[in-house]
């Protein structure tokens, strides 16, 4: 009888350890966009450590295309580069230490080396700015997620296995 209790207790401990291991080690990660006023989730898409995404838009002052390039680094959204066609009001005009300016073959410029953690990354969906999220081959105009004038908060979130099942 005593041996049977040890076997049952051992099996229970192994089961609990397995559950704990899966809860910690299987952590699907997502880029989540929410309406910053209402908290409504607008988009949740898989994105892993080291992957990049881009937000492109038409600059409201100099009316030319801009693309901000972000990478997930150590669980945070980091601005790594920006591409644009012309210098002007509201655009970077001087390089900071560690940054490089590259002339692009198709025209325009790219500044690499921002390495700026973007906690609380927000974009206001513009009426004419054509904000678009690019992840891999997907292009998602922000106006398809919410109305112009709405603030969109970008967050990188890791879920444990149980949260994934509950939230799906």
Low-confidence stretches: none
What is the β-strand count?
11
In quaternary terms, these chains amount to single chain
Query: Main β-sheet: number of strands, strand sense, barrel status?
Result: 7 strands, antiparallel
> What is the helical fraction, as a range of percent?
10-25%
Structural category: alpha+beta
Q: Which descriptor suits the 3D outline?
A: globular
Q: Secondary-structure element order, as H and E?
A: HEEEEEEEEEEEH
CA radius of gyration is: 22 Å
* Strand order of the biggest β-sheet: 6-7-5-4-3-9-10
Q: Helix tally?
A: 2
Strand content: 35-45%
The N- and C-terminal alpha carbons lie at a distance of 43 Å
* Overall average pLDDT: 85
Describe the structure.
The structure is a single chain. This protein has helices spanning 2-25, 161-167, and strands spanning 29-35, 41-46, 52-58, 65-73, 76-84, 100-103, 109-117, 121-124, 132-135, 138-141, 151-158. It has two helices and eleven strands. The radius of gyration is 22 Å and the shape is globular. A hairpin with a 5-residue loop joins strand 6 (100-103) and strand 7. The chain is α+β, with helices and mostly antiparallel strands. The protein has a seven-stranded antiparallel β-sheet with strand order 6-7-5-4-3-9-10, with no helix packed on it. Strands 2-1-11-8 form a four-stranded antiparallel β-sheet, with no helix packed on it.
